[in-house]
Amino acid sequence: MIAKRNAASHYPEQLFQKQWMQENCEKIATLVNKFWKNPQYSNKNLESHFAIYKKIMNCRYEAGDISFEPLFWKKSEMLDSKNFSEYVKKYKHLPII
C-alpha cells in the first residue's frame, strides 16, 4: 500500500470534492514518486499478503474462475512471480538482486 486515503467505495463523495482531490492527489503522487525511486520494493507485510493472495488467486484460476481478479493476476504475471519483490522488479524492468 502506498498511502492511506479515503477513496473507498463507501466514501464516493470525496472523489467529487475538488479540494480533497487536489490535496490527496498531490500527496499520493509524491509518495508514488518516492516509492518509484526507492530501491527497497517490499517488506515482510507486503510479502505475507502477496503470498496469501497469490494462493487464493491461483486456486481460483486453476478452478476455472474467469472473473477479473484471477485473470488479472495471471495476465500480469503475478501468479508466475516467486514473491512481490520479484514481481515489482520485473514490472520496473530491473534486475533481481
Query: Could you name the ranges where pLDDT drops below 50 across 5 or more consecutive residues?
Result: 1-8
Radius of gyration: 16 Å
Order of helices and strands: HHHH
How many strand segments? 0
Residue-averaged pLDDT: 80
Share of β-strand residues:
under 5%
What's the number of structural domains? Answer: 2
By DSSP (H or I, 4+ residues per run), the number of helices equals 4
Terminal-residue CA separation: 22 Å
Secondary-structure-derived class: mainly alpha
Largest β sheet strand count, sense and barrel closure: none
Work out the helicity level: 55-70%
Per the principal axes of the C-alpha atoms, what is the gross shape?
extended
Give a brief rundown of this model.
By secondary structure, this protein is an all-alpha fold.
Written description of the protein model:
The protein is an all-alpha fold and 97 residues long. It has 2 domains: 7-38, no CATH class; 44-91, no CATH class. It has 4 helices and no strands. It has helices at residues 18-37, 44-62, 68-75, 84-91. α2 packs across α3. It is extended and about 45 Å long.
